[in-house]
Each structure stands twice: as structure tokens, then as C-alpha cells.
Amino acid sequence: MKNQTILVTGGTTGIGLATAQLLQAEGARVIVTGRNPTTLADARAVLGPDAFVLASDAASVTEAQALGAKIQQFAPKLDGAFLNAGTFTFGPIESMTPKNFEDMFGVNVRGLYFQLQSLLPLLTNPSSVVLNASVVAELGLPSSSIYSATKAAVVSLGKSLATELAPRGIRVNTLSPGPVRTPGFDKLGFDATSLKGFEDSMVAGTLLKRFGLPDEIARLARFLLSADSSFIIGENITADGGIRLT
After folding, report:
1. How many domains does the structure of the chain reveal?
2. Mean pLDDT of residues grouped by 10 in the chain (246 residues)?
3. Distances from the Cα of 118 to the Cα of 30, 103, 123, 219, angstroms
4. Residues with Cβ < 8 Å from 111, sequence gap 6 or more?
5. Which of 41, 69, 141, 182 has its C-alpha lying 20 to 30 A from 211's C-alpha?
């Protein structure tokens, strides 16, 4: 990754931050976005002065469409982008609201789509784009109907955009993690007992009987962003601890 310039959206915590750290350790110049002032400050401290940590909210169409121009102030080109920003709220269909629907589709699908649109003038030939989806796109997990639908949309976008952007030398692939312990789990909206039950059921459903680690997903993202995966395009690569096989 030496001398590569890579964008990681939603890169201030969890999988995004782990990926940015790994890329930086391997010589890449990283640009990270987020929307929470506290985690933005934390990421600046972790990544140091060589990284660009920018405030950008994928939930805002205006900010998503302006991302490319904002990045161009710091870097004239991108060799890759990991579009990782996402949000989720779990609950049965009876509890879901139009706001839940708008929030999740707004960040996970619309934000991702228009962020990528804004980045097209910066992406080099060749370059690599990785979209972060989720194994829930094909699991049929209860209480995740809206979130699962957004991630199924991301998988579909990955295939369509791979075909469309291949002539420009832009490889598009999708990464679908299984259960990974990140700070996002604390935002599920469950009480402590329900959260423990949810986590236990997810672990029991994997062949490895554990959660994945952000670093494990980061290594897969790094592979897809690098020339090591130069003949892989339009794929949805899953790292789920075997949860689909149980």
C-alpha cells in the first residue's frame, strides 16, 4: 500500500478505524471521514498528523455529494476507497418507524451511492472501491428487516457498479462481515439483558463460536483495496465465522 492514497468513510471507530490503521502501517496515505466530533478527535489522535480526518455526514445528501471536492483540497487523486459508513437500528417490524427507514437507507444506500458518485473524478485508473455490506443481506435475521434490506441493496449496487465502472479501471467489490464486536453494538437499542441474549445467539450461530475482530475484517478490506486482488471484481466476499453454514 506504499504511496497509495485511500479513503475510509466511517473510519473513526470499529472496522473503519482498524482498516485505516492497517493501511497507514503499510505505507498508505489515509483519509478518514466521520460525523461524531468525539470520535473524529479520537481518530486524529490515533492516526496522527499524517492522516486527514474529515467531518462528513453520509446521512446528508449535500455532504455526500460534496465529499469528492472536500477531499480534493487534501489529495488530488485516490487509489482506493472503502465506503464503510453505516448505521443500524434493530427491532421487530411493529416497532420500526419511517424515521428508522429513512435513517438507514439514507446512510447505508443513498449516502454511499452519492459519495461514490462524488469520488469518480478522483479515482485513478486502476483503482479499487470496496463497499461494506453485511452477511445479514442473506441471513433473514429477525428484527433486522430494514437494515438487512439496505445491505442487500449495497450488494446489488456492488455488482451493477462493477460492470459500469470497469471500463474506467475502477474495480468494485463488496465485503460482507458477519458478527463483529464494534462500538456499534452499544447502539442497537436493546436493554442489557436483550443485548446479551442477542450476542450469545450470534456467537452460537457461528462455526468458530466467537465474534470477529475489526482487525480481521480490516485485513480483508486491505486485500480488496490492493493490487493483490487485481483480478477480483464484482464479488461479494463474506467473512462471517461460518454463520451462514449453521
Report:
1. 1
2. 96 97 98 97 97 97 98 96 96 96 98 98 98 95 95 98 98 97 71 81 92 97 98 97 90
3. 18, 21, 10, 26
4. 57, 58, 59, 60, 61, 64, 85
5. 41
Nearest alpha-carbon partner for 143 in 113, 180, 186, 100: 100
For 148, the domain range is 5-245
The catalytic residue among 82, 88, 147, 211 is 147
Residues 188, 88 contacting (CB under 8 angstroms)? yes
Is 113 catalytic? The answer is no
pTM confidence score = 0.95
CATH number of the domain that residue 176 is part of:
3.40.50.720
One-letter amino acid at 3 equals N
What is the spatial distance between Cα 8 and Cα 34, in angstroms, rounded to a whole number?
A: 9
